Amino acid sequence: MTPTPSRTAIVTGAARGIGAAVARRLAADGFAVAVLDRTEGDGKQTVAAIDAAGGRAVAVGADVGDPDRVRAAVDQVAAELGPPGVLVNNAGITRDNLLFKMTDDDWDAVMWVHVRGAFLMTRAVQRHMVDQGWGRIVNLSSTSALGNRGQANYAAAKAGLQGFTKTLAIELGRYGVTANAIAPGFIATDMTAATAARVGMSVADFQQAAAAQIPVRRVGTPEDIAHVASFLASDAASFVSGQIVYVAGGPAA
Ligand code: NAP
């Protein structure tokens, strides 16, 4: 018998930006969505938008790098929305600096959220996926995985997530679980707005300069990423696993 696809999704870092767009999209696709961010309050706006569109969502607070909070959050989601079958590891931060100025804390903070966070979340959720015989893991990598000046920590984390994704695909495929990564290029969010501020440019000028370097001559939107996440989370994507999908308005490498 073919397992029934789960209708519960968890999206981390879903208070804003890409995570919020992915959460809204998965809700529109019919998933009950756990909007996970550092605090429950952070996720309220995304939950309200999903409610207003007729979807179902709850806000869940957890630092993805804290194993106790992660375990409690996943238990809460399973109890309130049903066992999760989709996990989007999207929570992220940047602590950019040239290598010689990068502090131990800059390095650890980025590894904490992206690599440790994705590991802890996936370890906590996979048992629900294995029990159901169905699961979809989508990790947010980045074109920075290919190398980016001022981002030694972030590039290492995003490249690490690619190896993590491929290993999950190998280990979990036999249980009906796929794992893929989306590697966005420049997406207009608070994260890239913060980068503009760091380099002393207005957001508009920064985006215009970025767009000039992108083959399709525009920067990306959170919805560009949400479309791809929606496909990778769908039952139709069951034969796509261990892939890194660059979503960057052109070839990334
Ligand atoms: P964003 O607007 O900065 O949103 C990130 C969200 O993650 C925030 O709500 C943030 O909460 C949350 N978060 C951070 N650390 C967390 C933690 N330890 N536990 C729980 N939640 C946490 O970022 P974005 O631009 O949407 O990026 C989303 C993902 O895409 C990230 O993984 C990023 O690296 C990746 N990405 C983005 C771009 C881009 O151009 N924007 C390109 C490539 C990849 P706080 O506000 O409390 O920190």
From TrEMBL:
Q: Does the keyword Transmembrane helix apply?
A: no
Name the family: Belongs to the short-chain dehydrogenases/reductases (SDR) family.
Q: Which Pfam families match?
A: adh_short_C2
Q: What is the lineage of its organism?
A: Bacteria, Bacillati, Actinomycetota, Actinomycetes, Micromonosporales
Q: Please provide the record's keywords in A-Z order.
A: NADP, Oxidoreductase
User: Which SUPFAM superfamilies does this one have?
Assistant: NAD(P)-binding Rossmann-fold domains (SSF51735)
Picking any one GO biological process from the record gives: monocarboxylic acid metabolic process
Indicate the segments forming the Ketoreductase domain, all copies: 7-185
Report the GO molecular function annotations. oxidoreductase activity
Q: Which domain of life is it from?
A: Bacteria
Q: Which Gene3D superfamilies match?
A: NAD(P)-binding Rossmann-like Domain
What name does this protein carry? Answer: 3-oxoacyl-ACP reductase
